[in-house]
Amino acid sequence: MLNRISNKTRLSFYHTSFPYKHHILKALYHNKDFNMPTPRSIGFDLKFQTSGYNTSRQRKLVVLAGWLGAKERQMKSYLSFYHKSGFDTLYFAVGPLQVLYPDRAYSQMERVLDAATGKGLVIDAFPQGEILDIESLIFHHFSVGGFLYGQALRAIADQPDRFSKTKQLIRAQIFDSPPDIRGIPAGLARSLGVGSPIDKIIEYSVRAFLKFNESTSGAGYKASSNAFHSNSVPAPSLWFYSKGDPVADWQDCAAVIEKWRAKGIEVEECVWSDTPHIQHARLDPDRYFGTLASFLRKNCLLTN
Predict the structure, then answer these.
(1) 10 Å Cβ neighbour count for 222?
(2) Sign for the pseudo-dihedral over CA of 264, 138, 230, 247
(3) CA distance 148 to 175
(4) pTM
């Protein structure tokens, strides 16, 4: 079913007329086959790395979803923090087409949820490459990762037999600058790194594309947003965001947090007044990683 929707949506993109479509097509030309990653694509596929600081067979796994178009090297400071703290990591970053076509994001998160229970993951240092025994699962998602987490929540709700174990293992939900639906086009345009005024043209083109495809891509966004707002996972949460972020509106963040608290989810906030989108750790690393470590200790996920 997902493949049929993808083909239909793909055709709608190429055959629907909307302003400046050729600009966004040009920006995405290197991914014409709709596969991610390719040698020239934006983002990278699932990667797994164990912590050399943890020799136990009971593992703590962090799922790190990078911002749209993130490069692996840009994730190093976050990966280093977790590895030194004894956490294994499963990390990835999607490209623009996973955002334009929500069914592909849904499929991506199905893969992530499967891998997060240890399916296909081994620790080579253990005898016979012993299968991971994951006892704690943490999701740490950046920017568009909020949309991806919404898709994961949808998959959990749609397929309880397949993902009930994964849901039970989730011990923490961490978000850095997650935009709501209206912030996605701006975030996608900025991720391409083409600069002004082309980024604005791409942003308007994406908005037009979603408007013209409200029954497909638009519906996928709304379903993900609804799942995110009505989060069914009771694990404690930590949010990093800024009141000066033009992509992730801080009032949207506060609205979701209020809803989660009303549901009984414990939420901690770390808020800046003027840091740019997803730049909090780079500009204020002591506060960022100090808050993260404190949150993990408070919830018995970090002992050192």
Answers:
(1) 14
(2) positive
(3) 11
(4) 0.80
Phi and psi angles of residue 221, each rounded to the nearest 5 degrees, phi first: -60, -45
Q: Which has the closest alpha carbon to 104: 8, 3, 242?
A: 3
Residues 6+ apart with CB under 8 A from 60: 54, 86, 87, 88, 134, 135, 136, 137, 138, 301
Residue 76 identity (one-letter amino acid)? K
Distances (CA, A) of 79 to 69, 84, 107, 128: 17, 9, 24, 26
Contact 176, 143 (CB under 8 A): yes
Handedness of CA 39, 40, 45, 51 (dihedral sign): positive
Q: Which amino acid is at 290?
A: G
DSSP class of residue 122 equals B
Residue 228's closest CA among 173, 268, 271, 270? 173
CA distance 229 to 147: 11
* Percent of the chain clearing pLDDT 70 (strictly above): 69
Render pLDDT for 77-128 as a digit per residue (tens, 0 to 9): 999 999 999 999 999 999 877 877 889 999 999 999 998 887 655 555 444 4
- Write out pLDDT tens, residues 181-209: 766 666 566 655 555 666 677 666 766 66
Q: Give the amino acid at 57.
A: R
3-state secondary structure of 220: helix
Q: Which CATH superfamily is domain 2-298 in?
A: Alpha/Beta hydrolase fold, catalytic domain (3.40.50.1820)
List 238's β-bridge partners, or say none.
174, 268
Helical packing angle, 217-229 and 250-262, nearest 10°: 50
Indicate the burial class of 298 (C-beta count within 10 angstroms; 0-12, 13-18, 19 or more): middle
